[in-house]
Amino acid sequence: MGPECFINRELSWLEFNLRVLEEAENDENPLMERLKFLAIFSSNLDEFFMVRVAGLREQAFGESAPQDEAPDGMTALAQLKAIAVRTQELVARQYRCLRERLAPALEAEGFQLLRYADLAGPQREQVDRFFHDRALPILTPMAVDPAHPSPRYHNRGLYLGVMLHRAEGLGPKQLFAVVQVPQVLPRIVMLSGGEPGRTPFVLLEDVISARLPDLFGGFEVDTWTAFRITRDSDLELLEQESDDMLKLIEDRLKARQRGQAVRIEVASKADQRLAALIIDEEGLRAPAGDDGYSEVYQIDGPLDLTALWELHKLPGFERLHDKPFTPRPPRGMGRQADDIFRTIASRDILLHHPYESFDPVVEFVTRAAADPKVLAIKQTLYRTSGDSPISRALIDAAESGKHVTALVELKARFDEANNVSWARQMERAGVHVVFGFLDLKTHCKVSLVVRQEGSGLKRYVHLGTGNYNPTTALLYTDLGMFTADEAIAEDASALFNLLTGYSQGHSWQRLIVAPDDLHRRTLELIEEQARRSQAGLPSRIFAKLNSLVDHQVIEALYRASQAGVPIDIVPRGICSLRPGVPGLSETIRVRSIVDRFLEHSRIYVFGPDDEASVFLSSADWMPRNFFRRVEVMFPVLDPELSGRILREIIPVYLADNTRARVLDSAGQFHLLHPGPGEPAVRCQQEFLAQRPEVVAAESRDTASG
Fold first, then answer.
1. Contact yes or no for 601/351 (Cβ under 8 A)
2. Which domains does the chain show, CATH number per domain?
3. pLDDT 10s digits, 77-101
């Protein structure tokens, strides 16, 4: 198929980040949540530049072998140029949102962003005391001249660049210098003693810039500007060899702060001579470059809006946030502390997070750690929380003499340091810690408990689409399943043997595993629906996932569409497929939902409801998931649970007409609105409002007991 059949993945990702920005612009969202979305937009863009743009830049300007064109036909340089143009547009829109929408709304709520120059009386005294007591002892003024080489600016660190001239004493007559704005101090400095109902604050960089003469005694400040460098931060490990992967990761984490610069953000009113010094020193491409590609972003406002998280987290403004909610118990699991293993043995249990509590997942591991009948626990850990109760339970279990194995994925991007820390602690406690494979990430989410029951052993399994992280389980939508199905348990044991000992040759009964056969089976399942439609039988494909990129899967979906298969795709982020193209994808509909919770669950359905095969998975339809990660797609076998997904979850996603955006064939998403007389449906609110059949579940518990 020609390149016109595909949407560029990088440009598609930028359109996803636009959907995040639209939530910041949406007046229907509470004010503090709009600030949150504006901060997420910035942090998303940081990661995009650190990984995706850095990789394209290496292809376009590095010394590596020429790279193949993307399926959409764009070269690396063409992608960089298109990314730069679109990103400049989106960043300008982000700051218009801040200036024209959020700043007036904050002011109406009593928030006052003050400038140091405007402070007087007690407020000026507060800021001066803060500077002398907390900032000055940390700050380091750094001159740049032949005797003082230019510092290596830290990735995403905020700096002040200063041009000075000497009034007296030592030093050159003209001097360029820098000061790092300390990350250990709050970026937003709150002030007290203001008018009733007012919440005044100043920005840390404004406080420091006002006291630059104190930092550079004997010099006078000619001009200064804030700037920020983004660096290549991908951990390149595939070509490296090491006897100790943990040590290798630790070494690469230290190097991450000093990778190649890929972007500079600088205040739009910066003195051009001062800005040019920094840009040239980093070897970044300015707007006047020969290839028309610029890596300079001139910002009309405060740099690094991830600082808005500090306002979002301020106590006392609950009415400006989303209403709090308490996750309900999963269906089939009452609020009482019943025997979790007996409950799972009686039936499979589906968990829908964050609407249903993640506590049973934590309880599954903590109970196993304390249960004298449990002999072994095996656990994958991709992203964990800082104070991980699951990791602590594994430590307790090992210390009590149980056989405990933890597969800790050290290459979980930007969570490497957290995982290194837990790996060290678990090793000291006697947990058998393994790190999977150097050339594959272990991304599957599996927990296996082996328990002595009577004269034999019984295995219990938890499988999920999301991480074993109680914090993100309140913020991400995910699905998980408890089961004691023997075939799944057998497969789970074989999976851990593969991860810990390279054991291969197992005939998978229930689980579909990457990189072994997930790609092949996905294509087969799509093609089966195409054959059904061609034979005049009912057919259907539904895929809810984070990203759809793999061109072979997309081509298979196009063939299925040409055969008449109704196809619904619900991607959160990237979608390289073009829906609704006559003769190519007329039966494919694509919608994306961005709302309060991060849509993270992966649901795959093949066939009409009455005979559908329903799967959940840790994997998206991307080459990396199919070929460069260990992933699992698992079936939902219990008719009651698959029916719940088919009748209570999927239809709600497809009915959303307030937070759903529909993709057109040109690659643009359009926000849906209720039609005349049509009720508004917001799927996440619908899920929050759902109530489990507690009475029925409790009666089943009693009957099974």
1. no
2. 1-109 (1.20.58.310), 113-239+261-284 (3.30.1840.10), 340-509 (3.30.870.10), 514-672 (3.30.870.10)
3. 999 999 999 999 999 999 999 999 9
